[in-house]
């Protein structure tokens, strides 16, 4: 059988990719005070999450910046909270385009004198006081590129552990985390984006991607069309978030929206390795479940390698519990279900995100 060899190669290949993330993307620890920076936060009913981010922004140093919160038809205190923290608030009372987030950001225009823009989701937390300065420094050092960070996942409730496989697969498929990938990727993670305003306007901004389901991927693709790239970084130690505090249903809805469409947009060696890993792990589970005498010892050995690998990687991408890492083997079928339902939405042409319908194709 080929799958044991496949999975061992894939596991060690990705371990090398993940632990060599900084291969040739250098972020200086010394910054000159930066001006002309605007932080833009799209927010739809984010009254619970927003105070954490705004408080973290108030502690940032090494950069002078303004904060704009786009209050996208919120029915809670999002706007009031933003104003109480000194942010400029743009209130939207109607939906623009197919993608709610892209629609909200399309309403933004830079303040006078702004050279660098940082887009942050409302559930992001800047753990270090120089996180914003790092982003700005990197974007200004690569003025034609889009800087993207996949935040470190902060888990609180049991169901959030189900996010392990989707995140593992997306990091592998991104192709950024290795001496080969060198931080450059076809994938773009949307919670944290930073770029030069001139380049953002040149590629058309969010106005040009109003109909895209995956606004982050679509924006990254527009940068690449003009010769730029996505510089993709991991957020462990400096940027965190908690994605789905609203419950298990919100987690399933979020990944259902993203998985299949993202798989179609990300290609190359990373995507191939991600696919092989999932197939190999499913093969091992099937071999154990069917108690095939010839394959059972090998399947058990391979799953032991998987558990060891998962415990290693889990600490790099989120606060996943050790017991949950072992149980991820049982969570894998749930991930397969996410892929299947996401593919179904892609075929039927419609999906949902936070209770709002979106077309998955034009």
What's this, in brief?
The chain is α/β, with parallel strands linked by helices and 362 residues long.
What does this structure look like?
This protein has 362 residues and is an alpha/beta fold. The protein has two domains: 3-17 and 262-352, no CATH class; 31-151 and 191-245, Spore Coat Polysaccharide Biosynthesis Protein SpsA, Chain A, CATH 3.90.550. Helix content is 46%, strand content 17%. It is built from twelve helices and 13 strands. The strands form three sheets. Strands 3-2-1-4-9-6-10-8 form an eight-stranded mixed beta sheet. Helix 2 links the parallel strand 1 (34-43) and strand 2 (63-72). The radius of gyration is 20 Å and the shape is globular. The N and C termini lie far apart (42 Å).
Which stretches of 5+ consecutive residues score pLDDT under 50? Answer: 20-26, 178-182
Determine the N-to-C terminus distance: 42 Å
Using the coordinates shown, work out and report the CATH topology of the largest domain. Answer: Spore Coat Polysaccharide Biosynthesis Protein SpsA, Chain A
Largest sheet: 8 strands, mixed
Tell me the total number of β-strands.
13
Proper CATH architecture of the largest domain: Alpha-Beta Complex
CATH superfamily assignment of the largest domain?
Answer: Spore Coat Polysaccharide Biosynthesis Protein SpsA, Chain A
Strand content: 15-25%
The CATH class of the largest domain, by name, is Alpha Beta
Helix content range of the residues, please? 40-55%
Total count of helical runs of at least 4 residues: 12
Instruction: Give the topology string: H per helix, E per strand.
Output: HEHEHEHEEHEEHEEHHEEHHHHEE
Q: How many domain units?
A: 2
Global outline: globular
Chain-averaged pLDDT: 80
Derived from helix and strand composition plus strand pairing, the structural class reads alpha/beta
Largest sheet, spatial ordering of strands? 3-2-1-4-9-6-10-8
Radius of gyration: 20 Å
């Amino acid at each position: 059988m080929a799958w044991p060899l496949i999975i061992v190669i894939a596991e060690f290949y990705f371990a090398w990719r993940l632990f060599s993330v900084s291969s040739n993307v250098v972020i200086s620890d010394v910054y000159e005070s930066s001006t002309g920076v605007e932080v833009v936060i799209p927010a739809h009913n984010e009254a619970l999450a927003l105070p954490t981010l705004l408080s973290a922004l108030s502690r940032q140093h090494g950069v002078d910046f303004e904060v704009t919160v786009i209050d996208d038809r919120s029915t809670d205190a999002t706007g009031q909270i933003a104003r109480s923290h000194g942010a400029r608030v743009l209130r939207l009372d109607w939906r623009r385009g197919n993608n709610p987030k892209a629609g909200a950001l399309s309403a933004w225009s830079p303040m006078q004198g702004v050279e660098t823009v940082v887009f942050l989701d409302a559930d992001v937390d800047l753990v270090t006081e120089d996180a914003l300065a790092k982003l700005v420094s990197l974007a200004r050092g690569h003025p034609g590129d889009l800087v993207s960070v996949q935040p470190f996942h902060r888990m609180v409730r049991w169901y959030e552990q189900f996010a392990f496989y989707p995140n593992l697969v997306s990091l592998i498929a991104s192709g950024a985390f290795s001496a080969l990938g060198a931080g450059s990727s076809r994938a773009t993670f949307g919670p944290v984006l930073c770029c030069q305003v001139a380049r953002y306007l040149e590629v058309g901004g969010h106005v040009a991607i109003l109909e895209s389901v995956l606004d982050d991927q679509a924006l990254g693709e527009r940068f690449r069309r003009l010769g730029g790239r996505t510089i993709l970084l991991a957020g462990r130690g400096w940027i965190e978030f908690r994605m789905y505090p609203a419950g298990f249903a919100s987690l399933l809805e979020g990944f259902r929206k993203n998985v299949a469409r993202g798989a179609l947009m990300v290609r190359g060696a990373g995507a191939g390795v991600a696919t092989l890993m999932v197939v190999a792990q499913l093969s091992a589970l099937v071999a154990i479940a069917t108690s095939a005498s010839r394959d059972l010892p090998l399947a058990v050995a391979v799953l032991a390698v998987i558990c060891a690998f998962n415990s290693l990687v889990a600490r790099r991408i989120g606060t996943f519990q050790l017991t949950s890492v072992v149980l991820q083997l049982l969570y894998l079928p749930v991930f397969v279900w996410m892929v299947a339902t996401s593919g179904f939405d892609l075929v039927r042409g419609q999906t949902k995100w936070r209770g709002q319908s979106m077309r998955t194709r034009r």
